[in-house]
Structure formats: C-alpha cells, structure tokens
Specification:
Layout (H helix, E strand, L loop, with lengths): L4 E5 L9 H10 L6 E5 L5 H8 L4 E5 L16 H6 L4 E4 L2 H6 L4 H13 L3 E6 L3 H5 L3 H12 L9 E5 L13 H26 L1 E5 L4 H8 L6 E4 L6 H13 L2
Helix pairs in contact: 1-2, 1-10, 5-7, 7-8, 9-10
The structure holds phosphoenolpyruvate.
C-alpha cells in the first residue's frame, strides 16, 4: 500500500516569522495517518528541521544542483539539503522550468544526484493550457515523465507530482476525470518502465489550486496518493483541513 502524502511548497515565501505556522502544524498533527512534507525556502531549512525535531513532519528543499559541490555561485547541492535536515526535494517545478529554463534532461540529472544523496525526489510534470487545448496533454506528460525520471528511481525515492501549469496559483482545477486520466496514464507508464512492483509503489500527487474546498473530491480520484500544495500550505489553518481530508481518504 502506498502511504498518502501531503506536501507543502512554500516557494519564495516566508522569513523566520513563518516558522510559527510550521510549529502550529506540528502541534496539530502529532500522529498523522499520512506523510506530511513541508518544503520551505532554503534559508529556513535548518530552523525548520530543528522545529519539527522527531515529529512526523519531514522537511524538503525546492530544488538542488545537478552537481554535489563546486563553483556554482548561489546554488545549493543535494548533500547540503541533507546536511540541513531535508529528506526530500522538489525538482522540475514548472516555475523552475519557466524561470530557470530547466529542461527535463536537467531534472533527470538533478534527480539522480539527489537520490544518490539519499533524498526522496518529488518530480513535477504538467502541461500548459495551450497544450491541453491542443489535446497534447498525455504526449507532454509522457515525454516529461520519461525524460525527467532517472533509472535510479524506486518507490521510496520517487514521487511524481502532476501539476497542470494553468492550475497553479490560479484557482482553476482540472475536472476529476481529467486528473484521473493523467494519473492513470502516469501509473501505467511507470509500471511499463520499472515493472509492476516499483511502478505501483511510486506515489502520485496532484498539484494545482488544492484547497480545503476541493481536497475531498480530488483525493477520491484513483491513483491520487496526495497533493503538492502551494498557497494553501503557507498557514496551518489552510493546510490542516487538506491533511485531514487526505487522512479521511486512507
Ligand atoms: C505548486 O506550486 O506546486 C502549487 C500547486 O501551487 P498552488 O497550490 O498555489 O496552486
């Protein structure tokens, strides 16, 4: 059985004051029935790790470099994330693909490095609105999946997040049928590539304007093992109901 996962991506939001939200989240979920992951900005990784301590909440990075060290000013490596207390890293978020021209093959190399450092990689895939309207969604997702996911992936070190670009931060969400179609497709591709054992053990998250009001409907869709949440993960008040909806779906 795949353990469900509620992951929060704080993006470039939060200074030390935001740690009070993490503290509230920790106190609200001492024994969750699902995995909880918070990916704060890199500046907060270390204090966030100290704050969650031995609680069930895991801490993750939002990106890492393809190399483990060297002359790469401003970048952060996978071993540095581990050193700061991270156990996971988001890779290939559409904002990284867009703002930093990241291509799927870059993401595969980063993922290989991150997995070798012991991190669970949350690899993001998603189509634009134009691509969906042109009915190219499955072609785009299939190509991103095969190029972004390294051969070193297992059910423990890979999570795939389907995040339609047009749904991120917009309040728009695909219909349950549209989400189900893509998740079933990703599952079948993973099974074909890695075999049924690994293919069925990789968790698939949906991301894009998940909030308390739509969480229950999204978590009822087959092959949705949780969510990657941006805006609604920034406060305990908004994220806790999503976690509870996921626990109810267990
Ligand atoms: C995200 O950035 O991964 C995301 C899903 O954002 P939001 O929940 O705000 O749409």
């Amino acid at each position: 059985m795949r353990r469900k996962l509620a992951a929060g991506n704080w993006k470039m939001n939060g200074t030390k004051a935001a740690l009070s939200e993490l503290e509230a989240l920790r106190d609200a979920h001492p024994d969750p029935a699902v995995d909880i992951l918070i990916c704060p900005p890199a500046t907060l990784l270390s204090p966030a790790h100290s704050l969650v301590g031995n609680s069930p909440i895991a801490i993750g990075g939002q990106d890492c470099h393809a190399k483990t060290d060297g002359a790469h000013t401003g970048d952060i490596s996978a071993p540095m994330l581990v050193d700061a207390g991270a156990t996971a890293v988001i890779l290939g978020h559409s904002e990284r693909r867009e703002d930093h021209d990241e291509e799927s093959h870059d993401i595969r190399i980063k993922a290989r490095t991150a997995q070798a450092a012991g991190l669970m990689t949350v690899i993001c895939l998603g189509e634009s609105l134009d691509q969906r309207e042109a009915q190219d969604t499955l072609d785009i997702i299939g190509a991103q999946l095969s190029l972004s996911v390294p051969d070193s992936s297992t059910g423990l070190n890979l999570v795939v997040a389907y995040e339609p670009i047009w749904a991120i931060g917009t309040g728009l969400t695909p219909t349950p049928d549209q989400i189900g179609e893509v998740h079933d497709f990703i599952r079948s591709r993973l099974e074909r590539r890695f075999g049924p054992g690994v293919g069925r053990s990789v968790r698939l998250l949906y991301g894009g304007s998940v909030k308390a009001a739509n969480a229950e409907e999204i978590f009822a869709i087959s092959n949705v093992d949780g969510a990657l949440v941006g805006g609604a993960s920034l406060t305990e008040a908004q994220f806790s109901p999503i976690i509870k909806a996921l626990e109810a779906a267990v």
